[in-house]
Amino acid sequence: MSEEFQKIINYVQEHKCQQIGIFAHLNADPDAIASAIGLKYLLLSYFPLIHVTLYASSISLLSQRILSNYDENFEDNIVQNNLDAIFLCDTNNLLQLGDISVDEYISNNVPVFIIDHHSYHEFTKQAIVSIVKPITSTAEIIAQIYKETAIQLSENVGTILLSGVLFDTRRFIHISPATFELTQFLIANGGNYDTALSVLQKPFTKSERIAHLKGAKRMIIHYEDRGIVVISHIGSYESSVARSIVNLGSDFAVVFALTSSDELRISFRCSNKYASKTAINLGELANKIATKFGGTGGGHKTAAGANIKDIKYFPKNKDKIAKFLLEILLEELELTKET
Ligand SMILES: [Mn+2]
User: Fold this and answer.
1) Cα of 315 to ligand 1 centre, how many Å?
2) What's the 88 CA to ligand 1 centre distance in angstroms?
3) Domain 208-338 carries which CATH code?
4) Is 206 helix (H, G, I), strand (E, B) or coil?
5) How far is the CA of 218 from the centre of ligand 1 (A)?
6) What average pLDDT does the segment 170-184 reach?
């Protein structure tokens, strides 16, 4: 991995890049902000005089809580027009940048680098160098680079990276072969485990609890031969509701929210058992369904999301949307049996 990272360093040096933008995906989660911040200080340790700006079109509530403890800022739009290089961190395509557009940079051939752990996306081919590993968090990829390059970690960066690892592994429910080794490395090099963990302990708010209960009330339960598929809808907290429907006993849960601006946000969650039994990758499935309707989607094997802005093909009524989505989903699930 450090070999690929060395290629990035060489490029930045040879092309004398001065202004660097690091972009995280929309609704940036703790892994996204952690890896972007970790990458920023990696680059600054090689090039102390460059200017690095962090970008995310929106930041999750949990990430906002983490950031409130540190002096790090994410811009939500392009505030400067002179970037010499673009880094995508914890994402592998431009659609996931949300309202931030870097199209102008791309058409001007500004180099793109990708550091990510999501399911493959075509855009990765356009990167000058990409470090994409199918592991549990991008924070682990960044931690590994710190380890291999022996660059000094600060206590803050170590702690933020730990939060990223804890979040994406769901407190070590999902792990990769090196997760514990890299967690140990972060702790041994200044990261504070207690701080990293405590900032993630978020009791459900009253509105979130109500969302869970309403989501449970509106469930459509479908018995497919490979498992129990559930569809529901809610005003917000759709990913958290989908997760809890899987915890309630469904194999696969799809929960959507229709925002006030008529945007459909869909969360997909399934159990590990369902994913390995069916070989369905929810990241690919979400992308496929979203693309059908001109939207964007992606994620991982067991957790993914889709955003559809143009809902003209959908019924008006939310219960009907649920039935419509179930039909589309079942069609797609049927296709996965043939491959
Ligand atoms: Mn991630």
Assistant:
1) 33
2) 12
3) 3.10.310.40
4) helix
5) 30
6) 96
Distance 222 CA to ligand 1 centre (A): 30
What pTM, to 2 d.p., does this model score? 0.76
Interval between CA 272 and ligand 1 midpoint (Å): 17
The tokens of 101 are what? 């557009």
Residue 27 φ/ψ, nearest 5 degrees: 50, 50
Taking the domain 2-198, which CATH number applies? Answer: 3.90.1640.10
Please determine whether the domains at 2-198 and 208-338 fall in the same fold group of CATH: no
For residue 22, what is the enclosing H or E element?
A: strand 19-23
* Gap between the Cα atoms of 152 and 145, Å rounded: 11
C-alpha span between 66 and 24 (Å, rounded): 15
The whole-angstrom separation of Cα 193 and Cα 184 is 10
Domain ranges of the chain: 2-198, 208-338
The residue assigned the tokens 């979130």 is 208
The answer to whether 144 and 1 have CB atoms below 8 angstroms apart is: yes
- The arithmetic mean of pLDDT across residues 110-124, rounded, is 92
- Does 1 have pLDDT greater than 80? no
CA–centroid distance, 278 to ligand 1, in Å, is 23
Ligand 1 centroid – CA 38 distance (Å): 13
Compute the CA torsion angle 308, 125, 108, 296 (nearest 10 deg). 0
Q: For 127-153, what is each residue's pLDDT tens digit?
A: 999 999 999 999 999 999 999 999 999
Q: Would you say residue 175 has pLDDT above 90?
A: yes
Q: How far is CA 254 from CA 125, 259, 269, in A?
A: 30, 16, 7
- The average pLDDT across 246-261 equals 94
